[in-house]
Each structure stands twice: as C-alpha cells, then as structure tokens.
C-alpha cells in the first residue's frame, strides 16, 4: 500500500489534483496497487479555515505519507497577509524545508503532438528533451529578510547564501541524472557578479573531476535565458540555484507548449512532493479550463521516484502523449482542428487510455 497526502490547495489546485488522483486510481486498479489518499488543507484555504496556511495536521499527514501530491497555492485574496501567513512563504517554503526537498526536478519534454501548440518555431523545439535540477531549500528564498527605515524611505534586505554542502548535494544529484541521460551537464550561475555563484562554480569544477564521463559546461544565467529560446536542444541537464531555477523553468515551459505541461518532483528527503510547476492560475480558476496534464505528469513522477513503479509511470506518460497526439486540447494548448476539452474531460481521456492500454 502506498500512502499519498493529497493537498489540492487554491485556485485551479482543486480542479487539477482530482484529475491526477483519477489517473492514479486507474493505475492502481490495472496493476493491483493500493493507493491510500489522505486529503489535507494547505495555502489560502487552510488559512481561511484554521488561521494558518500550513496547519500542524497537514505537516503531520505529509510526514506520515509515502509521497505528497500538491496542486497549487496562493492568490489575490491572500496577498495582503503578513508575510509569514502568506501561502507561498508560510506554507510552500516550510513544506519543502521540513521535508528536506533540496532537489527539484523539472523535465521539459515536448510531446510530439504539441509541436504546433507552442508560440515558438517548430524547428526550434521539435525534439526538446531537457531537465532542470533546481536547488530548492537554499538561496534567496530562505535567507534572512529584513526591513528598516532609512532616510527618505525604507530599506529591504534578502540575504543570499549557499554552503558548499548545499551546492555539492544538488550538483552530485544532477551528475547522477546526467549519467542516466545524455551525459551533459550545464551549470548555470552568475559567477561574474555574485559571490554565491562563484562558490557554486568552484564547487562544480571540483565535482566535475569525479565525473569525467559527463561533459560539464558553465553558463551565465542571462545567457542561459536566451539560449533556451535560441537553441534549446543544446541542453540535456541544467543545474542551478533556487531563484534562477524558478525563473528559467517558467521560461522553459514554453518549449513544451504551455506551463500547463510542466511537471515537477521535489525530492531529497524521506517523503517526495509532486506538483505542477505552475501556480494557482486565479485568472482561469473555477472554469474547467486548466490543463491538468502537468499534475498528471507529476503523479507519474511520483510513481517513478517515490514508489519505484517505472512501468506504471511510463504508461501514464504514454497516455498523456496519446491524448495530445489525438488532438485533445485544453485552451492553453489549443490549435486549429483540435478537439477542445476541459480539465475534467482531459483527465477522463488520459484515464481511459490507461485502462484500455
Ligand atoms: P500561474 O502559474 O498561476 O499563472 C500564470 C499564467 O499561466 C496564467 O495566465 C495562468 O492562467 C496560466 N496557467 C498556469 N497554470 C495553467 C494550467 N494548468 N493550465 C492552463 N493555464 C495555466 O502564475 P501567477 O499568475 O504568477 O501566480 C498565481 C498565484 O499562484 C500566485 O499567488 C503565486 O504566488 C502562486 N504560485 C504558486 C505556485 C505553487 O503553488 N507551486 C507556483 C507558482 C505560483
Ligand atoms: C514554484 C513557485 C514557488 C517558487 C513560489 C510560489 C514560492 O513559483 O514552485 O515555482 O518560487 O518556488
Ligand atoms: Mn515558479
């Protein structure tokens, strides 16, 4: 039996998570696995119900599970709260920290059926298959923050720090991933300006000696942002710090057709967390318009990384591939001549392909 904490969260979170659960259910029935789901409150809805975006109960449920499936959190309703009560800082970051999830895997894979759904040219993106390893529990997000009054206004500070230990463990992980792929690692930093980036680069250069079979390159983050659009096929594995990884992966999601296609796995501790890379999309929430595929693909990553069910993970990915190849489209990946579907219908299509596989 596999115990899964289910945290739908806010906005489209409550629409996309049930579709991923639907898919897990079909996998369970087909392959005789028992998934036990425990739903818990997180984010703005948890704040509204309990006064805190990460109630103790929720953290306990996550800790007692084998894996966490998260939708998304945050939204305009909670933007004015004191920072420690905001869903992002008060719930998501502590969840990642408490569960020790230092490695965030964001695979950017273009399903062949979606070559024309992207705003980018077909020849630029056809065949894109890269993965970003984002450091997730350090850097600017977790550094000390402060505000003080100064002459003429206020001064705000966010401390950016990294230790060699933090850099080494994510970079080592990235090398191991590269060894299972095309043996190419690109480390992204801003070593021409930032001290933590200089330490980052030195640390990667040291570790590179242990992985002579992997081709190591270094790239400045501004150049990387451009290269991802100019020639994304040059990349295999990208490893980078927390905030650079956040920004580059939203950008890279367009290589896959839509941010609604980009899954993620956060691992490193006993319990892995799986969530789409996108947010709660308040602009389309509650309208059955959200693309559930990033969440469904995140559930596939759960099967792979937390439960070691590789065959089942591949079946889910193949069902997603078939759904888009057959022309089923939520509005974000819509193109002429396709079959328009909503969130629920897309989940049904994928689940249907799995049960008939
Ligand atoms: P967002 O990712 O929620 O939305 C950006 C754009 O992408 C919107 O136009 C949205 O409609 C679209 N989009 C996102 N997911 C989609 C999907 N599955 N299908 C179709 N379209 C999709 O980013 P934002 O608007 O900057 O943030 C909204 C809220 O989400 C904020 O409160 C932010 O802090 C939060 N957020 C949470 C997470 C998380 O929980 N992991 C991640 C990012 C942002
Ligand atoms: C993400 C999100 C989060 C991040 C926010 C909501 C804290 O943008 O998961 O990419 O920046 O890590
Ligand atoms: Mn982000």
UniProtKB/TrEMBL annotation:
General function of this protein: Catalyzes the oxidation of 3-carboxy-2-hydroxy-4-methylpentanoate (3-isopropylmalate) to 3-carboxy-4-methyl-2-oxopentanoate. The product decarboxylates to 4-methyl-2 oxopentanoate.
InterPro entries (alphabetical): IsoCit/isopropylmalate_DH_CS, IsoPropMal-DH-like_dom, Isopropylmalate_DH
Subcellular location: Cytoplasm
Cofactor binding mode and count: Binds 1 Mg(2+) or Mn(2+) ion per subunit.
UniProt: NAD(+) binding residues: 75-88, 279-291
Main subcellular location of this protein, as a coarse class: cytoplasm
Binding residues for Mg(2+): 222, 246, 250
Designated name of the protein: 3-isopropylmalate dehydrogenase
Designated gene of the protein: leuB
Site (Important for catalysis): 141, 190
Catalytic activity field: (2R,3S)-3-isopropylmalate + NAD(+) = 4-methyl-2-oxopentanoate + CO2 + NADH
Cofactor(s) in the UniProt record: Mg(2+); Mn(2+)
Residue ranges of domain Isopropylmalate dehydrogenase-like in the record: 3-350
GO cellular component terms, semicolon-separated: cytosol
